[in-house]
Every structure is written in C-alpha cells, then in structure tokens.
Amino acid sequence: MKFPGRRKLKHYFPVSQEKAILPSTEVRPNKDTYIVGLDETIVDVVANIDDAFLEKFAIKKGLSNLIDVDTAQKIYAELMKNNSISDHFAGGTIANTIHNYSVLADDKSVLLGVMSSNIALGSPEYHYVCTTSSKVDMSHLQGVSGDIGRGVTLITPDGERTFAISPGDMDELNENHIPEDIIAGSASLVTCAYPLRHEGKPIKPAMLKALQDAKKHDVPVVLTLGTQHLVEENREELLALIRDYVTVLAMNELEAQALTGHKEPLLAAKVILDDVDMVLLTNGPEGLYLCGHVENSLKRGTSNPIKSDDLADFNRWEFSRPMKRNLCKKPMKVYSHIDPYMGGPEKIKNTNGAGDGALSALLHDISANHYHKQAVPSSSKHTAPFLAYSSFAQICKYSNRVSYEILAQNAPRLSKGLPEREDSLEEAYWER
C-alpha cells in the first residue's frame, strides 16, 4: 500500500534468503488492506452520429432513452460498422470510486457485481476490464450469459448529447456471490443507492446481504445517494437503510436537500449526522464539506480562519479526527469546508466523477487508519477508536485535490496518482 510518507526501498535481492512469493492479484482477507465495492457494472460508450441515426433507432434527441438489449446490440453494431465510437469508459459510480482508490493507494480493492461470461475482443465488456485498474480484484464478479449495462452517449454535429441506456444483466447479481469473508476482512464496504430502484431484481437483496455482513463484522459502510430523483422516490426506504447500516454518507447538495428538506448544505449535514457517523457533501463550485463526530475531550481547534455560515464558527474543531458516534462518551458534531483547489480547473471538461474522486480519497484515509492500526497498534494515533487516520480538515484537502484532477480531465477515472511534486505536501498532510 502506498502508505502516507516517503518510503526507503532497498533495491537488492539477498541470495541467502528464500525468494519472495510473487504478489497475489487476488485479495487475502487476513493479510491485505483493501476496500470492497458493490456496483451495477456498466460501460460508457461515446459516439459521434447524425440526426438520421437517431431517427433510424427511434431515439428521442437530447433525452435519456431506456432501450432493450436487442436495440442496444444493433446500435452498437452500427456504431462499430461506421467507426463512430470515440471512447469507451468503464462506468458505475462505485466502480469509479474503487478504481480511483486503487490508483491513489496503489493497492487492492474488490469489485462485486456481474460480468459477461464470454468477453469478445473489442466488446464493451473488454473495454470495461481494460480501463479498470489491475489492482481492482474482479475475481468475485458473477458471470452472466448476457451483456453488462451499456450507456451510450450519442453526440450530433450541433453538440447535443443524447443518451441510450441498456441495463443488460447488470442487476442480476445474487446473494450467492456476496463473499462474507471478503467483506469481513475489508477496511470498508462502499455501495450506492441505485439498487433500491430495482424491486424484484436480485441485486437489491444482494446489496442488503452485503450491508448485513458488514454490520455483523463491524466494517464501516459507505453509501452514495446516486441522484436527486432517486432520493425523492425512495426517501423513506433510504432513511431506514441509512439508520440501520450506514457509517459514512456521500452526496451532493441536491441529494442532501431531497433527503433532509434543507437547501443549505451545513443544515442538511447537521440533520444527517443524527443518523450516521460521517457526511461527505460536495457542493459544486462552492467546494465540499466533511462533517462527523468526535469525543468532546479529544476535540482539536483549527488554526485556519474561523468560518460562519448557517452555523456560527462551524469549522472551529476541524483539526479533530473522525470517530463513530456510539464510541464517544460525549459526542460532538464537527464540520469542515474547503473551496475548490486553486479555484478549480481553468476549463472543466467533464463534471462526471468529481464526487467519486473525493470519496476515493476519504476511503484511502479510512483504509490507511485500518492498515496503521494493524501494523502499529501501540501508536499514539490509536489511543482512541478513530474512524480515519487524519483530521477533518486534512481529509478535505486530499478529497479536494483528487476532485480537481478529475475535473481537469475528460474521464471520471484517474489514470495515475497525484503529481510527484506534491510529495512534501502529502507528507505534511499525513503528519496531522
């Protein structure tokens, strides 16, 4: 694992010692530090077409069109024939998150979902595998006879974007492919609210089993809310699920408003903290908030300028480290906020995935704490049951920096870690 700080490596191979075992690509629950993500597997296809193409397949321009498997296959075959495809991206909010986590941590993660049993060269499934980090263990995916989900972005000469979405077999993940031992040994389980839409599909009870396994083994559960409309349509069910299972809730300001009724991010976070231990709330060009709990006797005051908004002096204790509320004798709520890194990129090519990038940084910090606690249990960093390695303020900095990298490119997934020139800053960050 790329654990915080510089490492001194010895570049030699002692002949008197046995040769090291080649590193395993699959996770070992008793030896590795890793996170687990459960997702609807989908590949995003970007293609340039004309209006006649839309008319041929009865696709409504400028809208999101749900299409069946046969139509999806015909559309894809036509795009391939005309050489219209410009890009393939592995998609899915959770798959994006764990890919980014593995890039940042330079370590393993596990993806739970489905994958076509027979992957043809050049197929969407082939591109899904190729554009996912080799550190992501996909050996626990469930094989299906059909296709994974396909989300096709069709761009006409006038620049209008039209979406054609085929779920395929992405919701066929069943409970038998939820490995309890893998979840039990993980630093955290991360999933999304999307499966709640699919009543009667196997993926919903599969997700619930994963949540139950995580709760049984005291593994932190991280949930992202998906979209504003999903929250509005499933609000009561979501609230019950959050109260029963969720440790960290991640969302944007619109989803937070749909969940709580509060338009103001801080007030929404304050309400949500009655049910969860931490909240990551991205607020577009206004930056992001990280909120949570700490034991009153362990709170640490900030040296940053004090901020007031809907809550007075809300960031006063942002140098505190997050804790689970039920492990605090006298829990207090802590709030931290950061503006976009360097004001944000000069030109934003694509906002897709910025929130997922921020979450991957938070997950890296949680897993770093898990790793360090196992490696150095006597460290002063573990005199209390902290949930993360760093302070609220420092995690904000890290999440913000990763979001910047996502916004500055044209894809929701990192291709490499943060620039090497920032090593000294990163070291200082982890000393908090």
UniProtKB/TrEMBL annotation:
One of its GO terms (molecular function) is ATP binding. It catalyses: guanosine + ATP = GMP + ADP + H(+); inosine + ATP = IMP + ADP + H(+). Keywords: ATP-binding, Kinase, Magnesium, Nucleotide-binding, Purine salvage, Transferase. Pathway: Purine metabolism; IMP biosynthesis via salvage pathway; IMP from inosine: step 1/1; Purine metabolism; GMP biosynthesis via salvage pathway. It comes from the Bacteria. Residues 132-295 form the Carbohydrate kinase PfkB domain. Pfam families: PfkB. Belongs to the carbohydrate kinase PfkB family. Catalyzes the phosphorylation of guanosine and inosine to GMP and IMP, respectively. This is Guanosine-inosine kinase. It comes from Marinomonas mediterranea (strain ATCC 700492 / JCM 21426 / NBRC 103028 / MMB-1). The gene is gsk.
